[in-house]
């Protein structure tokens, strides 16, 4: 499957952005869809994931600020990011744990 991430950009601290990840085929049977991020000089880390039954996981650093959701009918996964912080600056990737999107860049200034 091909995954196309979009929605990144520049924001100021406290702003919101919504990332989208469009899959080239149905994700209704995909067990887990996730968002990862990689900041300059750091390892890629899991931000959030969502299971087929809607169960979610969030990294402590984003809990309460980010919300992951999936629309199986649109084969799209979203990451709503609120109260952005400069430390959220990174390249964000979506994945079905087999394929990875090309990433969308998020830059948050203070």
Short synopsis of the structure:
The protein has strands at 3-6, 9-12, 17-23, 32-38, 45-51, 56-58, 66-71, 76-81, 90-95, 104-109. The chain is 0% helix and 51% strand.
Descriptive overview:
The protein is mainly β and 110 residues long. The chain is globular. It has strands spanning 3-6, 9-12, 17-23, 32-38, 45-51, 56-58, 66-71, 76-81, 90-95, 104-109. The termini are far apart. Strand 7 (66-71) and strand 8 form a beta hairpin.
List the helices and strands and how they pair.
Blueprint lengths: L2 E4 L2 E4 L4 E7 L8 E7 L6 E7 L4 E3 L7 E6 L4 E6 L8 E6 L8 E6 L1
Parallel strand pairs: 2-10
Antiparallel strand pairs: 1-3, 3-8, 4-5, 4-9, 5-6, 7-8, 9-10
What are the key terms here?
110 residues, mainly beta, four-stranded antiparallel sheet, globular
If helices are DSSP runs of H or I spanning 4 or more residues, what is the number of helices? 0
Give unreliable regions as ranges: none
Q: Cα distance, first to last residue?
A: 37 Å
Residues in helix, %: under 10%
What strand order characterises the main sheet?
Answer: 2-10-9-4-5-6
Going by helix content, strand content and strand pairing, the class is: mainly beta
H/E series: EEEEEEEEEE
Strand content: over 45%
Mean pLDDT: 96
Rg measurement, Å:
13 Å
């Amino acid at each position: 499957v091909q995954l196309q991430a979009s929605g990144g950009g520049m924001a100021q601290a406290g702003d919101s952005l919504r990332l989208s990840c469009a899959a080239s085929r149905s994700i209704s049977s995909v067990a887990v869809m996730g968002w990862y991020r990689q900041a300059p000089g750091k390892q890629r880390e899991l931000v959030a994931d969502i299971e087929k039954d809607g169960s979610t996981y969030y990294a402590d650093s984003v809990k309460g600020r980010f919300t992951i959701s999936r629309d199986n009918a649109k084969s799209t996964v979203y990451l709503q990011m609120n109260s952005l912080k400069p430390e959220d600056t990174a390249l964000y990737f979506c994945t079905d744990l087999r394929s990875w999107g090309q990433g969308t860049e998020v830059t948050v200034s203070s």
